[in-house]
Amino acid sequence: MMLIVKILLILATIGIIKMILILLLFKEEVKTARSKDPAARSVWEILFLYQGLHALIWYRIAHALFARKLFFAARMISQLARFTTGIEIHPGATIGRDFFIDHGMGVVIGETAVIGDNVLLYQGVTLGGTGLEKGKRHPTVGSNVVIGAGAKVLGNITVGDNSYIGANAVVIKDEPPNSTIVGVPGRVTRQDGKKIDVSLDHIHVLDPLVQNIEELQKRIEDLEKRK
Ligand SMILES: CC(C)(COP(=O)(O)OP(=O)(O)OC[C@H]1O[C@@H](n2cnc3c(N)ncnc32)[C@H](O)[C@@H]1OP(=O)(O)O)[C@@H](O)C(=O)NCCC(=O)NCCS
Predict the structure, then answer these.
(1) Does residue 63 form part of some domain?
(2) Structural domain includes residue 122
(3) Among 52, 129, 185, 194, which residue is least crowded by beta carbons within 10 Å?
(4) What pLDDT, in 10s, does the model give residues 43-101?
(5) Which residue has the CA at smallest separation from atom 43 of ligand 1?
(6) How many domains does the chain have?
């Protein structure tokens, strides 16, 4: 019994030392997490419970190793971080200041992705490639960008500063700054504060699957008329 108590005490002490180190070495990241999540109640809650913060700290360490060409160690850290947080950030990615991932699970950030300052990602976001191409193959995201839950931003494209990407959008081409992009494939619905009229019918126009089904439906109707 005494042994179990001792082990628990040692683990608790290690945990507390770890959190104090994070607080000292990653003050800015902790501050950002606090400012970007209205649900955050205390610094301790953020330190212990925020997977987005943990993933970012592991990424910063892995990225430093990657920059020193310690590729295996860097990838190992990023995979361990993925295992414990559900967030996979390639150590080769470039991420600016004031970055935060809220809720976390299922986020993937590719090797050649570049992210500016003050960017917020929600769960399920992918900044990925579109095939097996080499070189710069992941997106460049500007500063002050919010990417909604489940959105996919794919290929060597650029998302301009101060933009919002809607939940579940699939963005596959360059997008201008100061814009809101929604749908599949992503379309600008608002730019420089003004609504853009693209005759948006998100349910019927933007989803290619729905488009295909509609085309098939029309062909069946035409065939039935011919009978
Ligand atoms: C894209 C987003 C930023 C738009 O915000 P907004 O500028 O206030 O836009 P509006 O609400 O005025 O919507 C503009 C149009 O886009 C549509 N729209 C909004 N979000 C959309 C989305 N994710 N997908 C498809 N269409 C969307 C609206 O229905 C509206 O269509 P309409 O002009 O035909 O009526 C927001 O809707 C969004 O998706 N945010 C992500 C939030 C998120 O992921 N939260 C996770 C919390 S866990």
Answers:
(1) no
(2) yes
(3) 194
(4) 888 888 899 999 999 999 999 999 999 999 999 999 999 999 999 999 999 999 999 99
(5) 148
(6) 1
- Reading the block at residue 91, the tokens are 């150590």
Q: Tell me the HSE value of 48 on the side-chain side, using a 13 A CA sphere.
A: 10
Q: Which two structure tokens, joined as six digits, stand for 7?
A: 């082990």
What number does the ligand 1 atom closest to the CA of 150 have?
A: 44
6: three-class secondary structure by DSSP: helix
**Span between the terminal Cα atoms of the chain, in Å:** 84
- 164 touches 146 (CB < 8 A): yes
Single out the residue of 139, 137, 134, 133 nearest to residue 151, CA to CA. Answer: 139
Pocket test for ligand 1, best of 50, 175, 182 (most atoms within 8 A of CB): 182
Q: Is 148 in the pocket of ligand 1 (CB under 6 A)?
A: yes
Q: CB-based burial of residue 55 (10 Å sphere; 0-12 exposed, 13-18 middle, 19+ buried)?
A: buried
Residue 207's pLDDT is what?
63
User: Would residue 126 count as lying in a domain?
Assistant: yes
Is 191 close to ligand 1, i.e. is its CB under 6 Å away?
no
Question: Does the residue 194 lie in any domain?
Answer: yes
Range of 183's domain? 93-202
Q: Which strand (E) or helix (H) includes residue 218? A: helix 208-226
180 lines ligand 1 (CB under 6 A): yes
